[in-house]
Amino acid sequence: MSATVVPQTSTTTWNLDPVHSVAEFKVKHMMISNVKGQFTVAKGSLILDEANPANSRIEASLDAASINTRDAQRDAHLKSPDFFDVEKFPELSFKSTHVTRVKSGEHAVEGDLTIHGVTRKVVFTIDGPSAPGKDPWGNARIGLSATAKINRKDFGLNWNTALEAGGFLVGDEIAITLDVQFVKA
């Protein structure tokens, strides 16, 4: 008689805490300085396999209409068909396809990023996740930071205007920075 041994799993599920998370971007403005903005409404989940990070998965989405650059006129323009066209494309989303451990505490997460109805492969550099901690209510939490750079034109965000002195109003390269916290499900 043989017994089947069921391996212990180190996989846990974590839900994004939108109140303690920030999805930020920056882009060159008038070729002289960066303008930053945020998406203030986010949701997502992380399936974390601590024993084998390559088996981990993450999915997240941002409400395109929640864009905030601290200028109502600019935000309205970014929501328009010139940029995000939030009526037609209400979400930006990411779904991981591959996780690679780079070194202790750092991972490369490749996945499908969808913006403006266009999906492209993007690699985020992940710092973390942090060691779990408990909040005052007994919930386990972890945090991580992620960065990536994309070309906005790869996602059909082509609007621009030439400057009188030369160059363009909006840069093509977008730096994305995510500082997120997850609560164990």
Q: Order of helices and strands, N to C?
A: EEEEEEHEEEEEE
**Radius of gyration, Cα only, in angstroms?**
19 Å
Beta-strand residue percentage: over 45%
Instruction: Give the N-to-C terminal Cα separation.
Output: 38 Å
Per the principal axes of the C-alpha atoms, what is the gross shape? elongated
> What count of helical segments does DSSP give?
1
The portion of residues assigned to helices is: under 10%
Main beta sheet: 8 strands, antiparallel, barrel
Kindly state the mean pLDDT as a whole number? 90
Structural class: mainly beta
Sequence of strands across the biggest β-sheet:
1-4-5-7-8-9-11-12
Condensed summary:
With 185 residues, the protein is mainly beta. It has one helix spanning 72-79, and strands spanning 11-16, 22-29, 33-39, 42-49, 57-63, 67-68, 91-103, 106-115, 118-127, 133-134, 140-151, 170-184.
How would you describe this structure to a colleague?
By secondary structure, this protein is mainly beta. Helices cover 4% and strands 54% of the residues. The protein contains one helix and twelve strands; from the N terminus they run ββββββαββββββ. The chain has one helix at 72-79; strands spanning 11-16, 22-29, 33-39, 42-49, 57-63, 67-68, 91-103, 106-115, 118-127, 133-134, 140-151, 170-184. It has an eight-stranded antiparallel barrel. A hairpin with a 7-residue loop joins β4 (42-49) and β5 (57-63).
